Amino acid sequence: CEDCGKSLIGECKLHGPLIRAKDRVIPSRARLTLPHYLTLRVLELRAGNQQILGVFAKKVIQKRTQFGPYIGQLSTKLTRYDESRLVLQVLKDGGKYFLDTPNEDCGNWMMFVRLARNQEEQTLVAYQHCGEVYFTTVKPIEPHTELKVWYAADYAKFMEASAVFIKEESDICPLPPVAKESVDPWICSSCRSTFATFALLESHQCIHKDRV
């Protein structure tokens, strides 16, 4: 205590406690990287004050807008798993690694983007290029719309996941096959792969265009 000149354990009984000034709380690295035309919204508050966040557009975002690369730590196993986010892996030096984001200071804003539960709400496609993961818009995104992502066709094979999906409660499963006699398949002009819908073909062609 500077008033009585004594070194005390705890507060001074004569002059009282110190007035504690706290440091200013600064946003995490991930939140600071958020583009100015995007915003984070709290969608749910769980036990322990855990916030479930979503990324929303503040203005119109054009189709074929690329975001990334996704920032994370290369790891052989995930230290943080969230069923509402995509699990992402990359190929580096012949090895397959997870892009792990154990906390908000280890990643960028893309760690907040939730997975799409069906094709209608998907706005982004995730794919790997030169050992990095990028997200690209597959349709124009209107203001106040949440950005949601799923794997591109080739990346889905790499991740051993379904490229075509719907979600019923907590299960993700393939859509029923389209009968060939009723609908003509969409064919990729670059690799001749066939797709049941034009939207799937568009997502697949993003990879070819990015490689070029």
UniProtKB/TrEMBL annotation:
- Limits of the C2H2-type domain: 186-212
Q: Which GO terms describe its cellular component?
A: nucleus
The chain positions of domain SET read: 38-152
List GO molecular-function terms, semicolon-separated: zinc ion binding
The name of this protein is: PR domain zinc finger protein 15
Q: What is the lineage of its organism?
A: Eukaryota, Metazoa, Chordata, Craniata, Vertebrata
Keywords for this protein:
Metal-binding, Transcription, Transcription regulation, Zinc, Zinc-finger
Q: Which Pfam families match?
A: PRDM2_PR
Task: List, alphabetically, the InterPro entries matched.
Answer: SET_dom, SET_dom_sf, Zinc_finger, Znf_C2H2_type
- What highest taxon heads this organism's lineage? Eukaryota
Q: What processes in GO biological process is this protein linked to?
A: regulation of gene expression
- UniProt source species: Aptenodytes patagonicus (King penguin)
